[in-house]
Predict the 3D structure of the following.
Amino acid sequence: MIVKSISALNTLIGNVFAWLSLAIVVLCFAIVVQRYLFSTSIIWMRDLYVWMNGALFTAVAGFALLRGDHVRVDILYRPASRRWKATVDLIGVVLFLLPFCWLVWVYGWPFVVRSWRIYEASPNIGGMTHYYILKTFILGFAVLVALQGIAMALRSVLVLRGQEHLLPANLRYTAQDEEPGTGAV
């Protein structure tokens, strides 16, 4: 099933890239120790810290969408019926999310291609090379979020057609959705 496959892909990517947060903390600690204990700073390490943050947040955006971790105004959504949630999700994906992802792709593509063409590196002297790899995460962001949006739209269609039983239990709208802070889908 497409919904399950897309959700599994974003779950895998989200769980793998979540480990970057630990690496970011360790690296940040090392940078602080260097700066304040040894009065020195290594430029490429500072670049790496920023780049890992960029990679982390762009790579896990689809996973966050799957989990419902994005900010949304859910005054009307949270207590709503499953059909209403499905309708809101479908409209939101079609009118807002997919066009947004398309715009990010269209405007990001030349930006990324140019970066690859010139093998762009850090603007900082002594900084990291291969800046173009980080910029490629912009396109990855657009693809992963768009794919998860498609999965959301398909899930909504199944619910609206009365075929929610075709979805795995963890991808269905549940009563748990109505409890704030659960992060459930």
Q: What stands out?
A: Residues 2-178 form one domain. The mean pLDDT is 88. The chain has five helices and no strands. Helices lie at 2-37, 43-59, 61-67, 82-117, 131-160.
